[in-house]
Design goal:
The chain is α/β, with parallel strands linked by helices. The protein has helices at 16-28, 46-52, 85-89, 107-117, 138-143, 198-202, 210-228, 235-239, 250-256, 264-271, 274-279, 300-308, 327-330, 350-384, and strands at residues 2-5, 33-36, 56-63, 69-76, 80-84, 123-127, 146-149, 168-171, 181-186, 260-263, 283-291, 313-320, 334-337. Helix 1 (16-28) packs across helix 14 (350-384) and helix 10 packs across helix 12. It is elongated and about 75 Å long.
């Protein structure tokens, strides 16, 4: 048996590489041939996935979500650079998980993007999952050559708190952006503002209470108005685009600069040459921290399962809320949940998660071996008859 193990991260617990290695440890006990392919969909781990695909890993000092300098990374080769908001200025960069939606900024992602442009690749991919900010992308724009001033001419800090005070915008985007294809990788389809916009849908995840959500939405709306009178006449139309609300509006800022939204799942499956790996596999094992009905609607695991067909796909999760009768709809022949094996919270215990994933790997290998043996037995009986 040749198994392709291609999971996403278990968010807050293990990276995609750690998940894949733990499952592989259990499966190898059966003698199976294993290929591991850690995945990403535009969120945490996107740079790591790009490195797994052969891109070069680069470290860089950038501003974390609340402005403190820290070491982040991006990846590049001769053609492509990958920058992610998660490791530059995302939720994981907040001190002790302290959320501050008014002060959190996308500046760090812009700084990493600026560094990536120096490699003169033909395309740059901005992965927008895992963000901490709701700044309508003002931080990103600030790092890429724009200055924002108030009525008195004072330069404003690039965060959400400054949005209502912006009266004048100066500067132009970096020349390097003129010759590069800017791709925005993610699965968010929300516009920037309104009831389905960034603040209302994602603000609470970033620490915004009801009043702050209303304030953020109004601030972003005013910012779009100012942009429309300061060199961006299409700002209102762009703000209404699907994906403009990604990463608290960083998607909107990237679109202002000519960026194009693409499916993060499909982009990384292509970058990692998933189809070629799948072609030699008898079984595909994938997974993520939680599987539910949303998983079957264009998310990474369902996109993978669709491309893997007719190869069987087994899914593994920390928690599974997808009813058995809907497994086939998601493209899964089986779903294994760690929560079914313990009463403890695996999300808070990486060591336990590793052990249980190894156990699940052994279980999957045994089940697949029995299924294969049964299929051979039935084939033999038909041949005799």
């Amino acid at each position: 048996m040749h198994a392709l193990i291609a999971p996403d991260k278990f968010k807050g617990s293990l990276t995609a590489r750690e998940v894949a290695d733990s499952l592989a440890e259990g499966m190898r006990a059966s003698g199976a041939e294993i290929t591991t392919l850690p995945l990403a969909d535009g969120g945490d781990g996107s740079v790591d996935a790009a490195v797994s695909a052969g891109l070069r890993h680069e470290r860089i000092r950038v501003a974390a979500a609340l402005g403190d300098l820290h070491t982040a990374s991006y990846a590049h080769n001769a053609c492509t650079a990958v920058v992610e908001i998660a490791n530059t200025c995302g939720l994981v960069t907040l001190p002790a998980g302290h959320k501050d939606p008014l002060r959190a900024s996308s500046l760090g992602a812009g700084q990493a993007l600026r560094a990536a442009l120096r490699h003169r690749t033909s395309r740059v991919v901005l992965a927008l999952g895992g963000s901490a900010s709701s700044d309508a992308g003002v931080g990103l724009l600030s790092a890429l050559g724009f200055t924002f001033r108030d009525d008195a001419g004072e330069i404003l800090t690039p965060d959400a708190a400054s949005l209502p005070h912006i009266a004048r915008i100066e500067g132009h985007s970096l020349p390097g952006l003129d010759d590069v294809e800017l791709l925005i990788a993610g699965d968010v389809t929300n516009p920037l503002t309104g009831p389905d916009g960034a603040a209302h849908v994602y603000g609470p995840q970033k620490g915004a209470d009801t009043a702050t959500v209303q304030w953020l939405d109004a601030a972003a709306t005013k910012f779009v108005d100012v942009l429309s009178h300061n060199g961006f006449p299409a700002a209102h139309a762009i703000a209404a685009n699907a994906g403009a609300g990604a990463a608290g509006g960083a998607g909107f800022a990237a679109m202002l600069l000519g960026g194009r939204m693409v499916s993060g799942a499909d982009f990384f499956l292509d970058l990692l040459d998933f189809d070629a790996h799948r072609a030699t596999a008898d079984l595909v094992i994938t997974g993520e921290g939680r599987i539910d009905r949303q998983t079957t609607h264009g998310k990474l695991l369902s996109a993978l399962a669709a491309r893997a067909h007719p190869t069987p796909v087994v899914a593994v999760a920390g928690r599974n809320d997808l009813p058995r009768q809907e497994w086939a709809q998601g493209g899964f022949t089986a779903v294994h949940a760690l929560a079914d094996l313990t009463t403890l919270d695996t999300a808070a215990d990486p060591a336990l998660t590793r052990r249980l994933l190894t156990q699940v790997g052994r279980d999957i290998a045994r089940e697949h071996s029995r299924s294969a043996a049964g299929a051979r037995g039935h084939a033999g009986q038909r041949a005799v008859s």
